[in-house]
Prior knowledge:
Elements: E1 8-11, E2 14-18, E3 29-32, H1 35-43, H2 50-70, H3 75-90, H4 97-111, H5 118-146, E4 154-158, H6 173-182, E5 186-192, H7 199-210, E6 215-218, H8 223-229, E7 234-237, E8 241-242, E9 248-251, H9 254-263, E10 268-271, H10 295-298, E11 299-300, E12 303-304, E13 317-320, E14 327-330, E15 333-335, H11 339-351
Parallel strand pairs: 4-5, 4-7, 5-6, 7-10, 10-14
Antiparallel strand pairs: 1-2, 2-3, 8-9, 9-13, 11-12, 14-15
This protein binds 5-S-methyl-1-O-phosphono-5-thio-D-ribulose.
Amino acid sequence: MSSSLYSLRWEAGELVLLDQTKLPGSITYIRCSTCEQVAAAIKVLAVRGAPAIGVAAAYGMVLALQEGLSRNLTGKELADFFDEEGRKLDAARPTAVNLSWAVKVMTDLFHHTDEKSVLSVLTEKAMAMEEEDKRLCDGMADNGAHLFEERKHLRILTHCNTGALATCGIGTAFGVIYRLHERGQIDCVYADETRPLLQGARLTGTELMANHIPCRLISDNMAAYVMAHEHIDAVIVGADRIASNGDSANKIGTYGLSILAAYHHIPFYIVAPFSTFDFSISSGKEIKIEERDPEEVRSFHGVYDAPKDIPVLNPAFDVAPHELITGIITEKGVLTPPYDAAIKKYERSLQL
Ligand code: MRU
């Protein structure tokens, strides 16, 4: 990704977020000095993408602590304030598990650290999570690219945005694509525009062009045609929450792509780091799907494409069933069916 664009940055005790709702039209940054501002930015998708949401939330918890300390709260009062800010932040978006994971890590750390050093300990933890996210992206990219070794002229279809804008590194699914491009193996990346908020067109489009990756933008309803006529080698997408059986929630439209890929005998890969796994749930049925504002479907940037009062259904995510997933690319390797066993083994490897 061109170095001028980044999803988030910690600067002089504030969290600076690139306002992704304004891309590609304008490059605007939001400075957050409170946890409440971070929650609001997550809600409106100024910062989005599961790993970036997780790291933003970690810094949000640092801001909550800063605010509590600046109000001279101590002991139980400080702890109550911090926990309440954490609960509100956690409620900003329900599907990406990276959000609740980060809030929990920071909350646990807060309760196990003495008050004198807690601000520096939490700040260092958030910074470490940001650095770790970069390394995780590189690990996923290497493991994903390994699947295509010796292959040239690859045509990859992807969905939503999973790149530098969705993470703190080169991305999840986009990271794999980026690595393949570095190695001269990409012929073309087909990017779904990703209705209703166009993360594919606006964000992945920006990242593909910034990195000079050969690409073609398609509208979501062209995916079947493209699979039938354009010799697609693989579908590679990210995830927002992965259940213990491999069912994977990702941006709305991913479920449909998994079915289309199976019909066309095209490998379908999910790419995600450990923080996207929810080992506490047994299947995708337990994943809460975020339902967003109907206005997102009726209109775009305030311009209506539909009657203003038409009833709308707007689920932001869907679940690709594990049976249709060829492999889940992680920082530790590629998980393959049967996923129950592979994910248990992966979970154990994280505890070592
Ligand atoms: O609603 P968004 O833009 O946060 O949705 C993002 C996605 O669905 C991504 O594909 C997912 O978070 C994986 S990204 C690294």
